[in-house]
């Protein structure tokens, strides 16, 4: 961290600040210029509050030279991380297609969708059992029964399953779920992130509705700091002024995250656009810009879906999309 002092800083203020840094185990490299003094902090300044230091009346500016996400930062981990979920690999050149309904609704529904998406080339099955809904009056999932039906669909098809966990208290219910999803609304549920750090299972961390990439990475850092490195990031659209789509899919996040972190990055175009017609083109765009996978909502009867029917594509549309995705990925490699 570099701290630039104002020319008005007195010797006493300078000395006091240096002593405060040194008392925290940091070495201070002081360079005195004509107009200002610059303090270079050597050591581990991660726990320092940069905003607090910047608020001191004699401080001109504060700049971090290294980011505080050191476990998920590319600078210390140059090689791509590859997440393994059973036989499925994501990241480091491995691309995975996750598909399934927004919510698990019945045995017939989840098993038929699972069969259809598998036939079309999906690698994993998604399905919400505990649903975070904006309105408390909306369908909020089948809970434990939903997880049981998802496991049944896994047994029928062999597809590993992913489902959203909403609180740390639910962890015992998710013991046999292959990939634990942290939804956009929970990205900053730090108690949950810490517990997931201890659970050792792969975690799919969705970007919060208004989260910066830095906040997303720090959320991943929470899980990793607990000892669990099996984190996959998911861009799912962010809130902007545009009302045309449900959210705005921030595809530039994909190459940017690849630059910043070694973690795999997948894209969920369904929740980003909120409209069936826009899902395939945005899925293709995500593959073209280097996503390590996609998560897509698919329903056998979208018009009867209990949640997010408007953005669900049919199994036939999914099969057509999967074929085009293969072509786009080939083209992107060239
Ligand atoms: C979901 O994937 O089921 C979901 C609720 O998505 P998000 O958390 O991105 O809104
Ligand atoms: Mn949904």
State the low-pLDDT regions, or none: none
- How many β-strands, per DSSP? 14
> Which strand order do you get reading across the main beta sheet?
7-8-9-10-11-12-13-14
Secondary structure tally, helices = 10
Radius of gyration: 23 Å
Which labels suit this protein?
334 residues; alpha/beta; Alpha-Beta Plaits; TIM Barrel; 2 domains; 8-stranded parallel β-barrel; 4-stranded antiparallel sheet; 10 helices; 14 strands; 18% strand; elongated; binds phosphoenolpyruvate; binds manganese (II) ion
Written account of the structure:
This protein is of the alpha/beta class and 334 residues long. The chain folds into two domains: 2-63, Alpha-Beta Plaits (2-Layer Sandwich), CATH 3.30.70; 83-333, TIM Barrel (Alpha-Beta Barrel). The protein has ten helices and 14 strands. It has helices at residues 11-22, 50-54, 107-120, 144-157, 190-199, 213-225, 253-260, 269-273, 279-288, 315-333; strands spanning 2-5, 27-32, 37-42, 59-63, 83-85, 88-90, 96-100, 124-126, 161-164, 179-182, 203-206, 231-235, 265-267, 293-297. The strands form three sheets. The protein has an eight-stranded parallel β-barrel, surrounded by five helices. Strands 2-3-1-4 form a four-stranded antiparallel beta sheet. Helix 5 (190-199) crosses helix 6 (213-225) and helix 9 (279-288) packs parallel to helix 10. The radius of gyration is 23 Å and the shape is elongated. The mean pLDDT is 95. The structure holds phosphoenolpyruvate and manganese (II) ion. The site of phosphoenolpyruvate has 11 residues, from loops. Phosphoenolpyruvate (PEP) is lined by residues 102, 128, 132, 164, 183-185, 206, 236, 268, 271.
